[in-house]
Amino acid sequence: RQMVLELRKAIADSQLTVVYQPKYDLHSLAVSGIEVLVRWKHATKGFISPDVFIPLAEDHGLTSAISKLVVAKAAEELGQAGILGQPLQHVSLNVSAAEFNNADEMTALTNFIHQHQQLSPFIRIEITETATLTDMRKSMEIIANLQASGITFSIDDFGTGYTSLAMLKDLTVDEIKIDRSFVAELEHDARSRTIINAIIAMAKSFDIHVVAEGVETANQLNILQQLGCHQAQGYYLGRPMPISELVEHIAQDK
Ligand code: G
Ligand code: G
Ligand code: MN
Ligand code: NA
């Protein structure tokens, strides 16, 4: 409807911008990665959440255009800021299920990423756990193609689906992000702590990097550190922010 037209126009006119949420290394307590998150700055409605417009984009075949815009914007801003590699080791992008399950679109995205040579070595792609479910064999192939080109792969919202364990068995993932619902209960619920502990132990034995998402308190951070989690992300550590704030945020680490 009206909103789809506006979204198409927003894509064409570059009304979409990106923000960056820091990911902290729990050993050094310094920023070691970021997640890139898209924002729609609407002329009259203010910022529209991706929770609203990504599903719309999925329904109208606009996700690959959005991904390209996000990559181009991140390449420009991060390149100019001079923080790629030092300190950023990973730049994570969210790719939606509709795009991930389309092999041609993933090939196009991979090629587009590699056109940005400063950025491409750091790119990590996040897929929500449920997005990989539709066809496990196809997912394996798509992930293998990404990895062959040097792009690493992460499972977002890990633990929320019904196939978490099957995924660890069959997919060669580089990273998992423990869903924030487990992190939220960490302090008061021994069972959540036990689950996180088990996820970390299992991931480590597969040589998979573990990130905890949704860290909102110092206490959660402490517990995650004690459990040996590699990296953490959340409002306590840093909200999604524009590039200028990210640069300041990183400078304050030192
Ligand atoms: O950043 P925020 O909390 O508003 O994100 C809401 C949802 O939108 C999250 O599930 C997030 O993964 C998703 N999202 C954010 N940026 C992008 C993007 O560039 N592409 C896709 N496909 N999803 C995104
Ligand atoms: O689904 P995904 O993990 O990609 O969603 C990313 C979004 O999660 C971020 O853009 C941000 O809006 C939200 N987020 C990040 N940190 C926190 C947090 O500590 N608490 C909550 N409730 N949401 C967070
Ligand atoms: Mn994510
Ligand atoms: Na997530």
> Distance N terminus to C terminus?
49 Å
Q: Report the portion of residues in β strands.
A: 15-25%
Q: How many individual domains? A: 1
The total count of strands amounts to 9
For the largest beta sheet, what order do the strands appear in spatially? 1-2-4-5-6-7-8-9
CATH architecture: Alpha-Beta Barrel
Shape: globular
**Which percent range fits the helix content?**
40-55%
Which molecules other than protein and nucleic acid are bound?
guanosine-5'-monophosphate, manganese (II) ion, sodium ion
Unreliable runs: none
**What structural class is derived from the secondary structure elements?**
alpha/beta
Treating each run of at least 4 consecutive H or I residues as one helix, how many helices? 11
As a whole number of angstroms, the C-alpha radius of gyration is 18 Å
What's the quick description here?
With 254 residues, the chain is α/β, with parallel strands linked by helices.
List its traits:
binds sodium ion; alpha/beta; single chain; binds guanosine-5'-monophosphate; binds manganese (II) ion; TIM Barrel; 254 residues; 9 strands
